[in-house]
Amino acid sequence: MASAARLGCLLxxxxxxxxxxxxxxxxxxxxxxxxxxxxxxxxxxxAQYQASGAAPAFESAKRQSYDLGxxxxxxxxxxxxxxxxxYKSALWVYLARAYFHSQQLxxxxxxxxRAGEVMPELRESxxxxxxxxxxxxxxxxxxxxxxxxxxxxxxxxxxxxxxxxYRFLQDSTGALGVVRTAEQRRTGLYEQAEVAAGxxxxxxxxxxxxxxxxxxxxxxxxxxxxxASAPPPKATGVADSLKQAETLRLLQLRVDYYRAKxxxxxxxxxxxxxxxxxxxxxxxxAALEREGQRLALLATxxxxxxxxxxxxxxAAVLDKLRQQLQAQLDSAAIPP
Length: 336
Known about the structure:
336 residues; mainly alpha; Serine Threonine Protein Phosphatase 5, Tetratricopeptide repeat; 16 helices; 0% strand; elongated
């Protein structure tokens, strides 16, 4: 139900409310239906379309690329044809579909929106419903892939496509959930390693490292998307604002990829508190705990006593810092 509500909000943002017919239960346009009836534009002229050379080129590209599932190639062949003749509706439909099947979802959406501008008489009756149908299909794919992640959480390959679907749908809650699922998977593997021994323990540790790298890359992608959609900084202090944002990003990456020093955890935590981002500061504390657990496990499989001592000393330093930061976080939550 919540996903449907988010999709409704997105439809309103992108193109306004549903057409009256769709609201009253009339048959909806199906973006992916091969039997879709594609209306022609008022400006369409068969003779001009043939004379432009776009007609045979479109049929050739469709037959030789699109119908064979070579969607990126099909998109490359369809796009230039719109410069030769722009009033053939099927050109726009198949270009949008080629982008869609190539996972270029924003390009697909922009293609349909642009078609509505070129052929405004078809916007409400065809192009807008077609765009809405595409969005519903993206939502369906996201829900299906989310189910795969929920029931088969060990499949790393599902996580990147899923977070990109959520990003396209502007579903920040769903995208953050993907990141946290990967982080929880990493934590769970460390816990399994703690009670395992020998080869099995090393296998859990290796898998945890792999999930840690995935979680870090997902969070970096999510952060970069947030930064790209954020409003531009005010003219005053622009350089300082950009420098601070870049420093924060780099510190977060170091924490995510296990390259952070104790003082960098502390710096990142302090910056998040200064910005009033208590949830993010709490994630720094959680990252400290995970890194301490990782070092403690590495100590148990160290090749010699000296290396074991080094790992345990590092873990103790991080655990002490974690307790200090947690105390600061707790005190910040208490109203004056």
